[in-house]
Amino acid sequence: MNLSNRPLELFIQRKLEWLKKVVPDFLGVPISHDTIDRLLRYCRFEDMQGFLLAFSNEIIRGFIYSNPGQLVYVAADGQAISSAIGEGNDEHAKVYHVTLYSKQFRLSIAQSKVRDKENEQKALRDALMTVDCTNLLISGDAMHTQVETTLLILERGGHFFFALKGNQSGLLDAVQIAYGSKRFRGKRAQEETELVSGRETNRRVHVLPASKLDLSKLKRSDEWAKILANGTVVKAVREWRYANAAGKAKDASVHEDIAYFITSLPYDNKNIAKLCLQYSRDHWGIETCLHWC
Fold this sequence. Notes:
The chain is α+β, with helices and mostly antiparallel strands. Helices cover 35% and strands 26% of the residues. The protein has a single domain, classed as Transposase Inhibitor Protein From Tn5, Chain A, domain 1 (Alpha-Beta Complex), CATH 3.90.350. It is built from ten helices and nine strands.
């Protein structure tokens, strides 16, 4: 007996009554280990993966069809798969994938395999080419804040919500200058303070129209101007302190970090600040609900 298939056999035995209802002429006889082995031996992982991804996309398409105008948030990120064996059965080789993941549905809708993190940008674009991006909002970290990636998402009918860091120095500089100017008031949203694991956290965002940015110093400035013509820039501020200071090295001070984002979501949306506050947090769902599980 192949012990690795024992859990599958037990699962099937527990579902016999359900199987009788959904499988025509199912006899209800427990399936043997040999039968399970034969099924798995002739099942190619690539075929099963393709079926599951297509099925996931149909679920999301069905939701979008039933809820016109509503966006589905999808996070893009790469991760080495824990305990996976690479090519040539090298136990030290990593299997690295870029995944498009919907926390709302807890479904992966696309994956693209890469050798390592250095190839993640192209892998994301490859994954995007396999899905219908209409009414999807794709989030990603700063490495994906590229002309090619944002244009691809827009051309395929989606929206993007990407972070800005030092590797986009020109674009980040333009955003920080805009926030430093008193000419642009923008819109604010604030989330009520939450207390989790002894830490009290307050989050707020301040959004500005991307059309106010001075993009003249950027490489490919014309393309960025086109991409951000109706979009929004976001400043997300997180402040926290330890409610139980004695339990945290008696640190009662207030800590702060600031993150910047750009998005193609239109600034004239009346709920833009509230939406950006939500989306500035939602990206980490791919970590907590997929990579760390």
